[in-house]
Model the fold of this input.
Amino acid sequence: MQQQNTPTFGIGTLAQRAGCQVQTVRYYEKIGLLPDATRNAGNQRRYHDATLRRLTFIRHARDFGFSVEAVRELLGMADHPDMPCDHADAIARRHLEEVEARLERLGALRDELQRMVAQCAGGRVDECRIVEVLSDHDQCLHTAAHGGQRAIR
Done:
């Protein structure tokens, strides 16, 4: 619970300290990741250090690529520090698997791009291997890398 004598700051200061935009703060309030701000007599939003800590947590989790729903679950657990962390571990493991799959697709994409560039003779466009491969998925070694029909999802 916030105390009356606790120093507060405005939305611009909160956003600056957390390294995000004011619109981001408003969005997180709107979707319920941040609590509604208290208001001063001039109806301006006022925030406490606890909100800054929560916003920093959200930003850091989002920087790690966690979805908004995963962040919501993690915040719920962070709000109950005596809970076992097995669910948080499961969320992080699931996200790690998604990241590893994405890295695999990116590696295949890199390989395909390197192959296309290496095969380009630098002649005319009508002979360009890059344009040729981009026009026909069947000429790609790794159609899964770029969303072809056999894409790894």
